[in-house]
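Q: I'm writing up a methods section and want to include an example of the input and output format. Could you take the sequence below and give the corresponding predicted structure tokens, formatted cleanly so I can copy it straight into the document?
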Amino acid sequence: MEGEEQLQMFLWRGQTRYRCPSCTFDGPTELDVLRHWQGTHQVAAALGGGPTLFDAEDRPIEKPKQEIYVPPALRNIGSR
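A: Here is the clean output for your methods example:
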């Protein structure tokens, strides 16, 4: 599911739901999904998202500077 370009809208027990494009989280509104993404995925991306890795000489492997990736599906929510 990672890398999807749009929020997936689906019906569950007669209720419209929206699924996060980065994981399986879903919510009843697009805004709920945006709040989830900002509180979970955006923070993880800003922190570098993972442990420090070391090479054969026990030096930390430097990661290239990463930009925070905002899925296209979440870029314009709230501006409609």
